[in-house]
Amino acid sequence: MTTAPRESETPEMLDHFEANGYSPYLFFDSEEWARFRADTPLTLTADEVHRLRSIDDPIDLHEVRRIYLSLSRLLSAHVESSQLLFEQRNRFLSTSDVAKTPFVIGIAGSVAVGKSTTARILKELLARWPSSPKVDLVTTDGFLYPNAHLIRHNMLNRKGFPESYDIGALLRFLSAIKAGLPNVKAPSYSHLTYDVLPDEFKVIDRPDILIFEGINVLQSRDLPADGKIVPIVSDFFDFSIYIDADENLIHRWYVDRFMRLRQTAFRDPNSYFNRYAAISEEEALKIAEGLWQNTNLKNLRENILPTRPRADLILRKGDNHLVEKVALRKL
Ligand SMILES: Nc1ncnc2c1ncn2[C@@H]1O[C@H](COP(=O)(O)OP(=O)(O)O)[C@@H](O)[C@H]1O
Ligand SMILES: CC(C)(COP(=O)(O)O)[C@@H](O)C(=O)NCCC(=O)O
At which positions is ATP bound (predicted)? Predict the structure, then answer.
């Protein structure tokens, strides 16, 4: 049975385009989307999904089958066609000594929406394609300025906002990846110490696919005063995904996760948040609410949500982190 895509959907999904009575997206509910997996094999086990998911993210094998197999199949079509285009271009240039650069997939969305889980599940699914591609995953938090810099510039409470990232370093990293360079270093971040790890790098050595995940990956920059056009992160993407959910749900996920981390990660004396493991539940709730309202929600509204219409694919989650709707950009 074929599914006829609808050209309009709920107003909250893509209000801007809907308001204009047209949309560059096709919309599917999760059951329609699930059918596109066709005969894509399920290559993950329940235990592996359990291991890959973040704390408080209830994703299970059923959700992987329902949502992520279709996504893996779609991405396989995109990667294959980029390979074909690459071969055609080499014929056009009468050359065979240009190496193919990594296919880069960007994953954006709010803090606490579950980007990390999606990125890790995708990485495993893609690496298990019959062609066994080499797949790497890099998160943008490594490109945050160190806390010492944020404190010096009085912006520790702006962590995650555009100015808290070393955007030059981030663009240099992606340029090097897309130039096909070997052994490109990506800086690391620790959620435990809440800071970048000055001497820890991940070496990215010409993977077939690179997944690049972070709240800021679809953001542009203000035009500099000298009027020079500068590249933006998504110029380096071959495909981009935005993980979406109602802000009230993300709010709940953030606060619930904070309260759960209080009983786990925060107990580690090395945790930046260790001081919140010992305070009363009421006080801890106040801290979590403050971080959500003053930093993460503000950032979502001002800098993250406005980038949603740039994505090639939007996964809209409902209660319990389950994807309810999918929007796919028309070609
Ligand atoms: N304070 C913290 N201590 C330990 N782990 C954390 C902390 N905050 C977030 N994490 C973990 O870091 C990862 C990234 O979280 P986040 O940046 O909110 O993005 P997302 O929820 O979209 O993956 C998640 O796996 C989350 O569980
Ligand atoms: C590091 C973050 C900006 C998230 O980056 P992400 O990995 O989601 O791209 C975020 O986890 C964060 O620290 N936000 C600041 C407020 C807070 O402590 O929640």
Answer: 109-116
What number does the ligand 1 atom closest to the CA of 109 have?
Answer: 22
Ligand 1 atom index nearest CA of 55 = 27
Structure tokens at 324: 């309810």
Give residue 327 CA to ligand 2 midpoint distance, Å: 26
Structure tokens given for 284: 């801890």
Contacts of 229 (CB under 8 A, 6+ apart): 223
- What residue owns the CA closest to ligand 1's atom 5? 191
Residues in the chain, pLDDT under 50: 1-11, 16-17
Q: What is the pLDDT of residue 208?
A: 97
Q: Find out whether 180 is annotated in a ligand binding site.
A: no
How do the domains of the chain map onto residue ranges? 15-329
CATH class given for the domain over 15-329: alpha beta
